[in-house]
Design goal:
Blueprint (H helix, E strand, L loop, with lengths): L3 H27 L15 H14 L6 E5 H7 L4 H7 L10 E2 L5 H8 L9 H5 L1 H9 L1 E3 L7 E3 L12 H4 E7 L2 E3 L2 E3 L8 E9 L4 H19 L3 H29 L5
Antiparallel strand pairs: 1-2, 3-4, 5-8, 6-7
């Protein structure tokens, strides 16, 4: 029989190791503070994915590619027909086997925007769905920038607010500080941000625009890991198998050690 004095240090080391592994994940998930809004997307919602694909092609794909996804993947996973894909999603491609690439040359993009717009296939995986959702909703008017807008989550972003016609134009309110009679106005500093004020309504209501962005983020979440739903389905069966195997392993252990005291 093992000594209790040995078991306790080992158990403490296991717990400490688990905390070390989990802590960075927790910090990453909670990063961004109050500036991040919860996307609330669901990759199992096929209708949302279909709308998100439409939104991406119409509003993002002029500059951003999704070059790791083929149009045929949209057809198969998003439950679309060939005609629906060709008529609504394939504006430049000739066959559904082509990748979702753009025709804009990188050199032209860098000259126009200051840098080449990144491919967005993995943006939801690298940044997180909440960040992408909040970023798309956080553009505000700023006449000191080349595009006339700025972004609260990514100050100085070279990307213009391509969704302004839907969302409308908004201003960001930052509170001021006063020291020794000198008032300081803080611009584009997230720590001093108070609220957005809508100064020009868009074509959509705030609720409809939220759903529009949520569908778009949902599509980007799916695009980053198209097989995630299949993983979840297989994962359930794997866990069930391991649970049944655990029962048999425990019964075998009891039988083997029944005579050992």
């Amino acid at each position: 029989m093992m000594n209790n004095k040995f078991i306790k240090p080992v158990a403490l080391k296991i717990v400490a190791f688990a905390i070390i592994l989990i802590a960075p994940l927790y910090a990453s998930a909670s990063g961004g503070g109050a500036l991040l809004q919860h996307a609330g997307n669901d990759v199992a919602d096929v209708a949302s994915l279909q709308r998100g694909a439409r939104n991406f092609v119409n509003y993002c794909m002029g500059c951003h590619s999704a070059k790791y996804i083929r149009f045929s993947k949209l057809r198969d996973d998003l439950q679309l027909s060939d005609d629906q894909v060709q008529e609504n999603l394939m504006f430049g491609a000739k066959t559904s086997d082509e990748l979702m690439e753009i025709s804009m040359a990188p050199a032209d993009a860098e000259r126009w925007f200051g840098q080449t717009p990144p491919d967005l296939t993995l943006i939801a995986r690298s940044r997180g769905t909440d960040w992408v959702y909040s970023f798309l909703k956080s553009f505000y008017l700023d006449d000191r920038t080349a595009t006339g807008t700025n972004n609260l989550l990514l100050p100085g972003a070279s990307m213009p607010n391509v969704l302004w016609a839907l969302q409308g134009q908004q201003e960001a309110v930052f509170h001021t500080t006063e020291k020794d009679g000198v008032v300081t106005e803080h611009f584009a500093e997230a720590s001093y941000f108070e609220a957005f004020e809508l100064v020009e309504p868009g074509a959509m209501s705030p609720e409809a625009f939220d759903q529009f962005v949520r569908d778009l983020v949902n599509f980007l979440d799916w695009a980053g890991t198209p097989e995630q739903l299949e993983r979840q389905r297989l994962g359930i069966w794997v866990i069930l198998f391991l649970f049944v195997f655990l029962i048999f392993a425990y019964l075998l252990k009891v039988d083997v050690w029944k005579d050992v005291k």
